[in-house]
Amino acid sequence: MTLKQMSELTGENKLSFASKEELFTKLKVEPGAVSLLNVLNDERKTIHYFIEKKIVNHPAVAFHPNRNDQTLVFHGEIIPKLMNYCQVTHYHMFEWNH
């Protein structure tokens, strides 16, 4: 998905990638290791997470665990549970037909 497509989906006009400094300050992660599992480091709960609905039903989704030299694989049904466990209120499930 491109930033333009994400902008259209979210209604946000000024989407951009976070700087290296922002990634470290907000998620304690380096570029190249950004993943949904960074939610564990989102202490201020200011990040909005956009999750494609179809991955929640997928039996094997893979994410980097805050570093890009390892990968964790688990059932997608864990994702909403993870968000709730981390008390994240800014996550949005969306459908994307690509």
From TrEMBL:
Keyword DNA-binding part of the UniProt annotation: no
GO biological process: translation
Top-level taxon of origin: Bacteria
UniProt KW Phosphoprotein keyword: no
Domain YbaK/aminoacyl-tRNA synthetase-associated residue range list: 2-77
Keyword entries, A-Z: Protein biosynthesis
UniProt organism field: Enterococcus alcedinis
GO MF annotation, one: aminoacyl-tRNA deacylase activity
UniProt cross-references to Pfam families, sorted A to Z: tRNA_edit (PF04073)
SUPFAM superfamilies: YbaK/ProRS associated domain (SSF55826)
Record-linked InterPro entries: YbaK/aa-tRNA-synt-asso_dom_sf (IPR036754), YbaK/aa-tRNA-synth-assoc-dom (IPR007214)
Protein name, UniProt field: YbaK/aminoacyl-tRNA synthetase-associated domain-containing protein
